[in-house]
Amino acid sequence: MSHPVILYGATGHAVSVREEIEQILAERDLRIIAYIDDSPHTRPDSIGGVPVIDFETWRRAYRDVPLNVTIGNPAHRRRLVARIEAAGGQFAWLIGTWPSLARDLVAGEGSFIGGGCYVGPGVRLGRHVQLQPLSFIGHDTSIGDFTTICSSRIAGWVEIGSDVFIGMGTSIVHGSASRPLRIGDGAFIAAGSVVTKSVPPGARVMGNPARPLRELARRNGG
User: For this structure, is 139 an active site residue?
Assistant: First the structure.
C-alpha cells in the first residue's frame, strides 16, 4: 500500500523539481495526493489528475499528510514552513535517484536532494535545504536552513549560511581546514559565478571571480 504525500508548490520553480520528486515517490512507494498553491488567479485545478488546493483546504482536510515545500526562494520557503508548523503539519524528506551520499551525512527535516547529486563526507544540511539535481557538495561542508543550491559545485571546507540562494552552474572553491570559505546568511549568488572568497551576509554577487553586483555596475558605468 502506497503512502500519501503533498507537495507545496504547483507552478514556477516548483515545476522544475516536480518530475524528479515524482520519480522519488514512485521508488519509495509514496504517492502525491495533492499540490498546494496560494495564487487563486494562476492556480490550476489539477496536475496530472491530482488536485491543486489552497492552504486552508490543506489545513482542514490534509494536515496529517507529510509534505515537502518545493518553493525555490529561501525566504519564502522559510515563511511557508513556519506557517505549516504553526498549523501542526509535518514534513517529508526526499532523496533523488542515483545520488552518491556519504554515510555520515546529517540532514534536517523537509530537505530535498535531487538525482545525480554527490554529497561528500562530513556534510551537514539544515532544515528544508534544496539540492537540485547534479549538485556536487564536497567534504566538510555545512549548509544552513532553507538554502537553495541549483545544480552547482561546492568544494570542500565551505560554510554556507541560512536562506542563501546559489544559482545554477556556480562553483565555490578555495576553502581550507584552517580557513573555511563562508557564504553569509541571506546571500544571493548569480548563476555561473565562481566564488573564491567569502561572501558577507545579505550580499548579492556574480561573475568570475564573483564580485558584488553594485561594484560590477560601477565598473560598467551603471
Answer: yes
